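Annotated sample (chain length 299).
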Amino acid sequence: MTLTLDSITKTFGKTTAVQNLSLEIPEGEIFGLLGANGAGKTTTFRIIIGLLEATKGRVYWDGSKVTYEKSGMVGYLPEERGLYPKLKVKEQLIYLGRLRGMKKADIVKELESWLERFRVPEYMNQRVEELSKGNQQKIQFISAVLHQPKLLILDEPFSGLDPVNVELLKRAVLDLKENGTSIVFSSHRMEHVEELCEHVCMLQHGTPIIHGRLKEIKRSFGKKNLRIHADFDLEYLKHTDGVLTFSSVTDGCVLQIDQETTAEHIFHTLQGKGFVRKFELEEPSLNDIFIEKAGTSYE
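Output written by the structure step:
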């Protein structure tokens, strides 16, 4: 089953939130939708799930229009908290599961399984307001996947989580993908996107500025990052031909260079100057690419 956005445009009065956006997201893949705040990501998500109507264009799921009748196949984790603070976790999830057409026994079974997986089985009978921000995020994630959706929309899913819980959630997302769930994913943490996503689309002012397979986007960018750690001064590299940017780090520097042959030239200039502990040529990061294409940092 493929999710298709066909020339989606959404305007609010004189403001255009999304402009002529066309995407195709295959079954069982994690697709990254990126952009700075206000780029149109959340508006796009709300159009996909039917909370907003597109001004122009259509959304198709497996070749037919996404309607309310198909909403049971979709899971949505919004960036904002959407849980009832006074309800206990069990009451909250039974209510939401019943809205999806699930039986109470099936809801409780799924909930117990997810709470065990996230190492918080004791939260079953606690009120949502009694939980930390990070643990509320876990419960909100469970509410989005409880009914085993075919399509899952994740808007900043790692918000408020510490590194241990980020890894727990990432593993859950990858397992859902392996089981055939199509996932559309947004995060301000570029390293998470690079780790999880095969295809990405970057939005700026509602318009796609980069779109395609992540590996091909990086390859076509051309520029590389060169990380050097050495026991001598590397400042002279600032003035080397082909060095575009120079950043000092502890015991070394990170350079952005125009091509691989520049790295070879720099390697030869290091000979005889002292001990070199690291010389590593890296692919450009997504943040590097975004800065280049959008003229600003992602965050």
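Annotation: Residues 117 and 172 are 9 Å apart (CA to CA).
Annotation: The chain has two domains: 3-218, 223-283.
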